[in-house]
Task: structure prediction
Amino acid sequence: MSGPELSKTIPETRERLQAVRNAGKSIGFVPTMGALHYGHARLIEAARSENDFVAVSIFVNPLQFGPNEDYSRYPRALAADIDLCRSRGADLVFTPSVDDMYPEKQLTFAEVGKVGDNLCGAFRPGHFRGVVTVVLKLLNIVQPDRAYFGEKDIQQLALIRRMARDLALPVRIAGVPTVREPDGLALSSRNRYLSPAERTAATVLYRALLRSRDLAQAGEAGASVIKKEALRVLESEPLGKVQYFDLVDENMQPVDRVTPGIRAAVAVWFGSTRLIDNMELVRIDKDSQ
Amino acid sequence: MSGPELSKTIPETRERLQAVRNAGKSIGFVPTMGALHYGHARLIEAARSENDFVAVSIFVNPLQFGPNEDYSRYPRALAADIDLCRSRGADLVFTPSVDDMYPEKQLTFAEVGKVGDNLCGAFRPGHFRGVVTVVLKLLNIVQPDRAYFGEKDIQQLALIRRMARDLALPVRIAGVPTVREPDGLALSSRNRYLSPAERTAATVLYRALLRSRDLAQAGEAGASVIKKEALRVLESEPLGKVQYFDLVDENMQPVDRVTPGIRAAVAVWFGSTRLIDNMELVRIDKDSQ
Result:
């Protein structure tokens, strides 16, 4: 099985994808920061099943890391990443350098107002501005029909969905369910930072989310009751330091009452590693919409 | 001669233009706020000469008007505008409503950092954020090969050029020289607000710019000398109230010395009407680039 085409530059990528469009083929796009895991594989599979041509980008975007964050130590694993792209049938892997993406000082940024204010946005100033700006730029380069993002980064997904609507981007934004380890830990490129003891403790995010969902599905609608119980679960784990636990609506605004579509979202530090996760507490009944 | 097609909605416009693209035709785009004059005609002519299909949008964008600005009284003249579009050979006129463009509260904005800080940007907070955001949205709807903007709004042009580069927009941004009345007044939809006396006085912008250019071309390179002399010309006109006169580089940053490409930019109030104009003082020698 031959591997995907590799493209390192913006002009090369544009030219290749223009030929794909000219041939009347649809394009699915999976933007990533590399260090790919099975969660990314599911994004590529989703793109593969809905499009004629699948492009994956691998770019660790400096704009979205704060000065004290893990940009320099963020895992890079290009050979393994390309193998994974090949195994899931990606057609093109785009690996621009920082100089390709930002040949001059980036002056233009997109921001999505209140959707980025809470949860991670409250603790990582500038992070989502960097995320939505690079995603917008990648979408302008690739010009896909559909772009795929994991639900694990739910605030990122909400921001990108809203940006796409607000700016009339000619792309469908697709969310793909979180993939978990057998014990419930959400897959993340940052899980590899965890010590064995931290790795064991890290299931506490999932346990707190499950407990919240159980409460909600048993009829508890009070956000404060659910939040208190979830924090009790989270704080029972001495290796973890809770950053936030909140119930939010689709615009990532805190709510007082649980209604269909409301999600619980959580962030916990384990040493110098920060993990996030989220879960829909009561499913939206799609049939009734 | 049949008139241009008219399109009022985003889906209708997208569908029509997708058919144009599928036919392998290039698209030139002229975004306007209507109240079209001969300056706009030149934009449409430029688009006509370089593209297979020409789309013009007419949309008075509320996002770019401040609370005390002239949004509600901004001139609307749709029938005459469509006549002008017809006479210059436009193929499609897109006239979305405010509800089409902003069906929900706009949370997403693009901003272009320091390029928008000076000149008009210093006096119209939020104005350029509204401008670049609506232009980005219109570009996403029309997806043109080339988009045309007048050099009269030089800061707007600089912002849009920089946004296009920073966001890798798949479009070429073209600037079209300012069109002037025989006495030098730059064409503007707002000129119709002027009383006869103000209209006569309004040539002072052009006179101050010409005087600046004459000085620069005679070898005067000191920005402060040129600025002082231009202000003397401007202040000789009692009906005008100068808002700014500055010498700026291509990123709209003030300069101390005149070099090729530097522009003088000016804004003057006449009663409740604000006029702007600008001029390159020493031409960039294109052959030497």
Notes: Chain A has two domains: 5-176, 189-280.
